[in-house]
Amino acid sequence: MARIGQFAPQFDRRVSTSMSDLQRSFAKAKLAKLPSEAPMPESMNEDAWEEDSSASSVSSTGTLVPSPTRQLFARAGRRQSSHASLSWTDFFEQELFFSEEVGNIHITHHAYLTPPTDKGPLFVMHHGAGSSGLSFATCTEEIRRILPKAGVLSLDARSHGRTVMTPIDSKIDDKAPSTAAAAQIEASGAVELDLSLETLSRDLIYVVRQTQAKMGWEILPDIVLVGHSLGGAVITDVAKNGELGVKPLAYAVLDVVEGSAMDALQSMEMYLSTRPARFPSLSSGIDWHTRSRTIRNTTSARASVPSLLYEDSEPTDPARPWLWRTNLSATKPFWENWFVGLSRKFLDARGGKLLLLAGTDRLDKELMIGQMQGKYQLQVFPEAGHFVHEDQPAKTAQILADFYRRNDRSALVLPPKVADMQASAAMKKGTGASGGATGHLK
């Protein structure tokens, strides 16, 4: 993709044939304010800036399109010039850690929670590959604004965020394991990586049940499952298997479908080789995500990106000590497992269904047929990139809130049964079985 400075001559030739002198002067004045060159990280070549919607459906590193401004979609009222990180406490009430032993591995699961109140629903969020539970931070804030009684549980999957896997004989502090410690242990090869769909689905159910126990809920609140990219495959699998019983009211899949995801696998390795491998600072990592438009909302980037990186204590490049928390290349053996059969499971699972996409080009044949048959709700945000919930948190939250209301069982007022209506009428007339008794008493 041509860089920003190269757009001006082509644009000027176009406007010269169709605009008035006043319009041309206005356009030139605007172009003059743009930088002549969009700075590019040293480790990226020009191909890394090209938009690839299909690849972004697999990777939670997003759709790459250069932006002429650094904070184009930042929320009003926040300091748009800052790339300082935001804390999870700005968006969630609690941080949870649950430890368990599976085989020869000790796992400390990590999640963020804002509990529901007064019989409100619980939105259970699962992020995409390479991301973390904090990718739903800004969306959580907006959901709570619309549905004050709603709760949100957003977890970190294995090898993501602060969820840690260690050998049983060398576990680390379960109370607050650091992202750096988790990444370094896994990078050493001390534990075998297992990110199969079956394992991730099991982990999600485990975290939900452990949260229920910790919060002292006798029964689970009504649940809306929400998954982005890989997370969409996980929550669909959980909904299809029905292991949470009747509590899931509905499930929402964000920007992933089987067809485009499978097509994108061919270009994933090339994409991963073009993104920066290291960053000089955490703020530069946030800056890269917003400038490349991987995440188009600066507030969301400031909340989520810090959980995607960690500072190496003994870096091979001291000038760039910040590394990716998740080694996405190592997840390659699981890519097909994540998405094969996704469309059929999405259509067949019980409950309300929502598919939220960044473009209709992502729909495959099976989903197109299902949409024409009215089997699910489809919403498209063409102005968003792959991270629809981060790029457009308020709009996403509104769609999810409306989706919940549409599937809320407690809001249903069912008509009386015919037999009950007949019995009531008989009682009033003093006839029928119960009416005979009443007549006898008279």
TrEMBL record:
An example Gene Ontology biological process: monocarboxylic acid biosynthetic process
Catalytic activity: [phosphatase 2A protein]-C-terminal L-leucine methyl ester + H2O = [phosphatase 2A protein]-C-terminal L-leucine + methanol + H(+)
Gene3D superfamilies in the record: alpha/beta hydrolase
Highest taxon listed in the record's lineage: Eukaryota
UniProt cross-references to Pfam families, sorted A to Z: Abhydrolase_6 (PF12697)
Keywords tagged on the record: Hydrolase, Serine esterase
Protein name as annotated: Protein phosphatase methylesterase 1
